[in-house]
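Weekly puzzle thread! Below is a chain. First person to post its structure in token form gets bragging rights.
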Amino acid sequence: MPETRKATLDKDLEKLVRLEQATNLVARGLVAPGFGLLFLALTAVITAFYVSGEPGAVTIVAAAAIGAYMALNIGANDVANNVGPAVGARALTLVGALAIAAVFEAAGALIAGGDVVGTISKGIIDPEQVANPSSFVRLMLAALLSSAVWINVATWVGAPVSTTHSVVGGVLGSGIAAAGFGAVDWGVMSAIAASWVISPMIGGIFAALFLAFIKSAIIYQDDKIAAARRWLPPLIGIMAGTFAAYLALKGLKKIVHLDVISIAFLGAAAGLVVWSLSSGHVRRQSEGMENRNQSLRRLFRTPLIFSAALLSFAHGANDVANAVGPLAAIVATVQEGSVSAKVGIPLWVMVIGALGISMGLVLFGPRLIRMVGEQITRLNPMRAFCVALSAAITVIVASWLGLPVSSTHVAVGAVFGVGFFREWYTANSKRRRRYLERKAANGRAVRKAENEDEEATLPPMSGAEVMRRRLVRRAHVTTIVAAWVTTVPASAILSAVIFYALAIVY
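Winning reply:
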């Protein structure tokens, strides 16, 4: 029977299949940017209908699109700090983390987001120096666009940066361009610069202290389950009390105003109640569990999921102003024809911020979530629990002391603290050494399949060996710290350039 297949046709079909596969691969990379551009376009169109016929409508529409762009970038970059540790610890899947964070970020922004914001971020520029409405609008447009572009660049290179510092840098640069260096309150700027060091250090120290306690009191005990029953409920109580105070201090100002004593009482009461309730829950959950670290990870998983949700809610309430604050200031100035020190945030402006943050997280957030949760150092539920608890405690302590800390720097600093503490503990812990010796004496090997915990499976090491087997990836540390240091100056320079460009056309 004659051969019916044609070799040339097969080759052509194979080329078409490969072309189709390549096209699909490229198209997948364009899906997220395409949806992002669609969101910006819809924001501009809906805003145009909303402000049609009002004075300065074109300016408001442009500002709304830029504000939506800023919100997308906040969601892509900043939210990773809230859910990244839970994903890295495998307490949440990436899809689950995206869903929880998107819902709670939007809820925090809409329910508890600040309804009044300062028009000059953090008081770094004297408002009297930019009292001219046109100059003020250019200043805010430049600050908003420059900070959004800088956060976009940082996300692209894989560096979590402070969105608050980006806005501060934007206001600083355009403020200097508008009114000169004399308009800047350099004392405030010095405090902000100091927070670059203070924030990650405090976060790292708190996280390391909590991890040291968990290792000593629970992980390296012969009866891990009994130790967890004893100490996990008070740790959960501390977490609950901390978050109750955190939300009252940072996230619920729009709903109710509480003084420091009331906030402390609320946190203590919530902590005691949750401590009492969690004791029975932990005891029931731990019944029949094997005496191994895998069981501890299951016990720590649920409180870690709750912490990710609460951090997202508080972040949405607190940081949505970075996206919509300048936009609200522009809208108020254009509509009223004058500059005000404080302005209210219209509901439609808040919706732009809430939806933009959630969309930015879903479309562009996975890369930074993996960076924070997986690529700096290896996390498990116990370590991630320390990171979340440290972040909340540090922000509360800093707020009471009046220190201008960055939540991003605190959370990432806590991840650094956990990783560097693990390196030190591996080389220097006598408790860990005695624990491994007891295991060896009893003929019970510490298996990696059981522990999934590098420092629990490694033999005691010298300092030189620890340097060789570092548990924190230095390349990521260098990239992130460099991005932190350059955030304010880079955003400021870009903002000044944009301000001068706007002066030509506006």
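Puzzle host: Confirmed. Bonus trivia for everyone else. Residues 445-452, 464-469 have pLDDT under 50 and may be disordered.
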